[in-house]
Amino acid sequence: MRRRHTPPGRSAKPDASAVGAAEALAIDFPQEVETIAPGPYTIRVSAPAEAQAVEVCVNRSPWLACRRESGYWWGDWAAVEPGFYQARARMRTADGQVRMTLLRSFNAGL
Fold first, then answer.
1. Which member of 19, 25, 29, 73 has the greatest number of CB atoms within 10 A?
2. pTM metric for this prediction
3. CB contact at 8 A, 108 and 83
4. pLDDT at 72
């Protein structure tokens, strides 16, 4: 693994303002390369406060609308068969901006 050089007197850990952790759009679950049970599964997405709508897509299927509850967005999905899957989330803001996550790879009960 390659490490980034940190000049003396500087912390290698970025501060929260640089990372924008509270403002990130991310798929929380399933986690990367996680194996889930086949069948119904609810994908959890974290999105910034300005998100007006969040959707998830699995293996390039049609986008599924998520519901907002308990501070997260939840997308109900059913893995029909065991196998390898990739999911992506996207959000829309009131002013029409769209943001997407990177692909999240996971398995359904192999």
1. 73
2. 0.76
3. yes
4. 96
Nearest 10 degrees: Cα torsion 44, 60, 38, 47: 0
Architecture of domain 24-108: Sandwich (2.60)
Helix (H, G, I), strand (E, B) or coil at 93: strand
CA distance 45 to 56: 9
Tell how far CA 89 is from the center of its chain.
Answer: 6
DSSP class of residue 18? Answer: H
Write the DSSP string, 61-87: ---EE-EEETTEEEEEEEE-SSEEEEE
In angstroms, the CA 73 to CA 81 distance is 24
Q: Note the pLDDT of residue 102.
A: 94
